[in-house]
């Protein structure tokens, strides 16, 4: 009798728990859809909102932390078909995810109906006055005044000398060390380069202090916004505070120096941001300058560092492609005039096969896996409606890993780019539309210069060549590519 009693009680508790859970799920759906008009509700894309409060974030994080990141979008495709548009609940907001070239292109190219829509947590880390937090008009103006000093021919020619000198010196130092975390050291290299471009004459102590906290910042951008000690987002907020303090200190010194009439013949980006003004004489305030620097310094070394590491390892794992890349670089070096000291931009423009290697690495690694927008009005895409005010995620990774877009997408194959002009929306490594990454040319220049010297003169010996990969915030070997760098001439 006693066992029967406890069995009935357990069953009753289970039924009650199931009822409570069902009610919570229904309430969660009603909270997202309850205010929508019937016509809009009827045309919502298929999908689900996940669990109350956390939505689909648990499934997203589980997929990426399990080592199978593509399982997240694959679950929507499996349940609802390859329609390329699904409803979900991400980063605390009802969200429409677009996942095929056609739907991504429509969202990314339509500035009238879609504005930037990064999660509030990410804006808090990068800055509300940075590119991801400002209006379309402000973005257009800020991009105009910062893109030419970064991507213009004269600027890239000047940066090329700086990049090459830093790369050559750093590679030689690595050969004297028994083992290095290759990814860690490459990130430090690219951070030193971007620091010299943006804060030219600051000392190494500032560079080192900023590089350390940027790691914490990156881990928090795609984490759940939990402001509790021990969680990634909490550490990222502390990192943001440190970054702002350091950059504000540098900015104060620059303003004081300018007030005294002092100047520096080599203008860096901070100098440019201090001096720039619009037609009405308006200048950037301190918050605008600091947030712009936080964004550029972060984006300017993370993508370059990771792509350099992956391109290097991919080539060494694929001798056929390595031989082609080396042959091209050998030919470029062979035809340099005796009087020429180092690479020129014309030389870099000749690196056609290496450019395919870089593009294939960008596609396969997916440093930028998703972009964020927000609908300004009800928008119809492929017969479905995206409600006004809802967030929209353009899933770059889903496009790049789609076998209908790229056959055998998990295979590293630079030759797939032979005679290929990507259709709109199929290659999104740097985004698309008016918000295309403003530093894309500088990033490819860094990567090309490094690979040129590394492929011709060095080799990487990985300690754990089959090391597992961690996918957040960016794909990387869990040992950070522990390796020994040797000179080819001494092997």
Overall mean pLDDT stands at: 89
Number of E-state strands: 12
CATH architecture level-2 label of the largest domain = Orthogonal Bundle
Oligomer: single chain
| CATH class (first level) name of the largest domain | Mainly Alpha
> What is the CA-CA span between the terminal residues?
81 Å
**Strands side by side in the biggest sheet:** 1-2-8-5-3
Helix residue percentage: 40-55%
Radius of gyration: 25 Å
- What overall geometry do the principal axes of the alpha carbons give? globular
Number of domains: 2
Number of helices: 18
Percent of residues in β-strands: 5-15%
Q: Write out the CATH superfamily name of the largest domain.
A: Cytochrome P450
Q: Would you list the SSEs in sequence order as H and E?
A: HHHHEEHEHHHEHHHHHHHHEEEEHHEEEE
- Which parts are unreliable, with pLDDT below 50 for 5 consecutive residues or more? none
SS-based class: alpha+beta
CATH topology of the largest domain: Cytochrome p450
Largest sheet: 5 strands, mixed
GO molecular function: ent-kaurenoic acid monooxygenase activity; heme binding; iron ion binding
Pathway: Plant hormone biosynthesis; gibberellin biosynthesis; Hormone biosynthesis
Membrane topology: Single-pass membrane protein
Keywords: Heme, Iron, Membrane, Metal-binding, Monooxygenase, Oxidoreductase, Transmembrane, Transmembrane helix
